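During the second half of the funding period, the structural biology subgroup turned its attention to how the target accommodates small molecules. The most pressing case was farnesyl diphosphate, which had performed well in the primary screen but for which no bound structure existed. We therefore specified the complex as follows and requested a full 3D prediction, including the ligand pose.
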Amino acid sequence: MPEAETSVANGIGNVAAPRHVAIIMDGNGRWAAARGLPRGEGHRRGVESLRATVRAAGELGIEVLTIFSFSSENWSRPPAEILDLMGLLRRFIRNDLAELNSSGVRVRVIGEREGLDPEIGGLLDEAEELTRNNTRLTLVVAFNYGSRQEIARAARKVAVEVAAGRLAAADVTADTLSSYLDAPDLPNPDLIIRTSGEQRLSNFLLWQAAYSELVFVAAYWPDFNRAMLENAIAEFRGRERRFGGLAARAGS
Ligand code: FPP
């Protein structure tokens, strides 16, 4: 039961802070539209929020921060916006990688790597390789990521093992499937935050979110700041996680 170990419920709230926080950075376009600016400006300001959030997460002792940076479904956006987002990712890695590395951040990437622009693929590999021994904070970049696609990839790998006779179909459990996901060694997210007031998961970490606490923040992503992160964590700590069991009651 890995989740039960990540934070302890005491009947009042979670004693422990979240080890793994995942964020759906939503609302860049609406932030820009509200100011009469192009959507690209919202994404650029979104990268600034991201930088500040990574810094805050490290300072707050979060072990893993996962960010939804580009979904499998984002390819349906206009080509100019896709180019913009790809450019921002390239620049983020080129400009920020050295600093992330020197501040002890390990970068991991989840999502479909096949078929990606080779330059982007190379940068993602470089970021993972350069930072592989860092331990202060793991920044998981969900890029070209869709949770159903990730689960389907895992199921295909399990099917190959079964077809090759290395695994019996009867032995396939939830743990087996988990072990074929994109980052099986990481803890499940304790807390998932979505900005912009939307209240859904949008194909993000569906498997891993089975027992995550969800916190929805009204602010658009470019306005997200450290105080909002701290508030979300405080809300998380006020929740009682039961993982399908019974509430712990005082005196019981
Ligand atoms: C949602 O806003 C955000 C995205 C689709 C991408 C998030 C990307 C960034 C913060 C910058 C790029 C990331 C990296 C790692 C460099 P939206 O466009 O859906 O906003 P809307 O719902 O208001 O239109």
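Two results from this model are relevant to the next phase. The first strand starts at residue 20 and ends at 24. The chain has one domain: 17-146+188-236.
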